[in-house]
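seq:
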Amino acid sequence: MSHRLAAFMTAAVFSASVLFAGQEPAEKEAPASRSPESPAAGAGLVDSEAYGEMAEFLGMLSIIRKHYVDGDRVTWKNLFQYAVRGLMHELDPFSEYESPEEFRSMTENVSGKRVGIGIVISASRARGIEIVSVLPGGPADKAGLRSGDVLLSADGEDLTGESASDAAEKIRGEQGTELKILVYRPSRDARLEFSVPRDVITVSSVQGARILPGTDGAAYCRITQFGPDTAADLDKTLDRLSKEGMTALILDLRDNPGGILGSVTPVCGRFLPAGKLIVSIEGRENRKQLVRSTDAGPKFTDLPLIVLINGNTASAAEIFAGCMKDYGRAVLVGEKSFGKGSVQSIIPFASGRGALKLTTARYFTPGRLPIHGNGIPPDIEIPLTPAQRIQLSVQLNSHPGELRPLVPNPVRDTALERALEVLRGLRILRGNGKEIAEKAEQAEQIP
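struct:
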């Protein structure tokens, strides 16, 4: 039996696919090696030491299959899925087994369109299934779900101990159906129940772009996540803002859960010269990939830039924040980011049995700072109470970039206020510097 299992494993084919100027941080080049996105071709091979363990494992499965009380639950297909799910769960909160159905749903998520309720969730042993962000104007937002809510059940099914993908599968359903969802809201120490209609979710990631009134051209733009169209949408937005007289940019990444590496890298490139290191991706056996900016797309390398972050700024959004901070290209304002800096490679099984989402590497900023477990600290910290954080998150979904929105009991966006103060200070410094330079030039011309 051990040889049969080894043959099955080897048959699995893997595939994956401070202010506005600064010196480039030191980097360490590595020898050419396999990308961490593509596990080694021999990853499915099993050495001789493993045969005994596998034989014993198969024996355990046979005992379960023969004696478990509910025989219909212990088919070989189910046992395979149970075993792999348990294995992945023990590795880290982000490694998961995706069933064929879950794999298809994940592919839909990346495309930017799916049926759901418009939330991004994460799973941890400490907090359970937590809402990281709520899509502005989506079904969950309209129903009253908020960032920081902990999901307890969906349509009566307990979500305790579930992986993020399993919980997401229970949340999804047919368009037009109602989802009964029970959450725990820490800020109120209360359990709340919501009825949320499922709908087609189209993610528009660039929102709220405008020239802020009374700021001499300071523009605001929010990126809710880094999807396939983010860079193109941002290009259009910055082109429009430039024509409207943009003199500086406040880029809001608060509650941005991340997204696609291939989306955040061109966005970084818009604010950096070509050839700058954006992020290094490092896995086992000295596998290292260095991602650099290119000369593609419009450039805004001299545009004063403020980046707003908070505790729900994660993954790809942290790559952007960390990159801008290391180069002194932007001032970061807000709260320390989430600290999710690991790479999950998608590894489909050739047999069609789904895929592994496996942590294969970690992200490091250009200055060699590890993102995972640490987060990106802001240059200017704006602490908020839990209640303020939740209220502001709700406010941002419907009124991004508005200092005084016309809503009942609005909360002050102190991070945005501070960003505008920083820009005013920069204008004074730049203006004084220009005046001094002009006077010095005039003095040189006096005989």
